[in-house]
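Exercise 7. Given the encoded structure of a 175-residue chain, write a plausible sequence.
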C-alpha cells in the first residue's frame, strides 16, 4: 500500500458517503478526540510557535475518508487548542481548511507528500492572512512557525504512510 493513496472510498471523492457509516463516524470522533488530547501537549519553541502532534490523527481521517470528513475532524480536533493559540478562530481557520486540502491532495498524491504540498499551498496565503494580518503577529514569527512546520509536516506524512501499511490499522478503518 506504500505507493498508493489511502482513500477507502475511492468513488466518493469528497468522502460524503462515509458520513452515513457508523464506523466512519466513530473513527472521526475518536481521532478528533485524540487530536484534542494531543493538543494539550505542546512544547513552546518561541513566541507563538509550538511543537505539537494535534494534526497527526486528523490527517489520518483526511487521508482515509476524504476532504469533508477531514474538514469536520479539523473543526472537532482543534477545540482544545483554541485557548492555546490566543484567538478563538486561529486553529479553526487553519486545521479545517488544511485538512480539507490534505483530503483533496491525498486522492492524487501519496500521503507522504499530501500534507507538505497542502501546507506549502496554504501557508503563504491563509497562513499569512491568519497570522500576520488577522492576529497581527510579526512577519518574523510567521517565518519561524513556517520553518518549524516544514519538518513536522514531512514527519506527519512519513508516519501516516507507514502507519497504514499495517493490516491491523487498515482493518480498524474498514468493515
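Solution.
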Amino acid at each position: 500500500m506504500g505507493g498508493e493513496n489511502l482513500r477507502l472510498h475511492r468513488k466518493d471523492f469528497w468522502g460524503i458517503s462515509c458520513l452515513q457509516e457508523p464506523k466512519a463516524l466513530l473513527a472521526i470522533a475518536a481521532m478528533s478526540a485524540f487530536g484534542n488530547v494531543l493538543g494539550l501537549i505542546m512544547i513552546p519553541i518561541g513566541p507563538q510557535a509550538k511543537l505539537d502532534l494535534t494534526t497527526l490523527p486528523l490527517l489520518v481521517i483526511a487521508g482515509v475518508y476524504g476532504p469533508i470528513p477531514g474538514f469536520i475532524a479539523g473543526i472537532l480536533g482543534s477545540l482544545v487548542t483554541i485557548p492555546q493559540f490566543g484567538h478563538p478562530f486561529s486553529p479553526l481557520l487553519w486545521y479545517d481548511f488544511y485538512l480539507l486540502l490534505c483530503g483533496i491532495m491525498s486522492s492524487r498524491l501519496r500521503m507522504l507528500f499530501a500534507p507538505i504540498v497542502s501546507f506549502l499551498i496554504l501557508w503563504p496565503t491563509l497562513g499569512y492572512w491568519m497570522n500576520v494580518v488577522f492576529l497581527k503577529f510579526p512577519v518574523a514569527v510567521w517565518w519561524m512557525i513556517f520553518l518549524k512546520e516544514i519538518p513536522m509536516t514531512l514527519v506527519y506524512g512519513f508516519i501516516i504512510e507507514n502507519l497504514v501499511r499495517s493490516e491491523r490499522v487498515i482493518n480498524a478503518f474498514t468493515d
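Remark. Residues 139-163 form the longest helix (25 residues). Students should compare their own answers with the one above.
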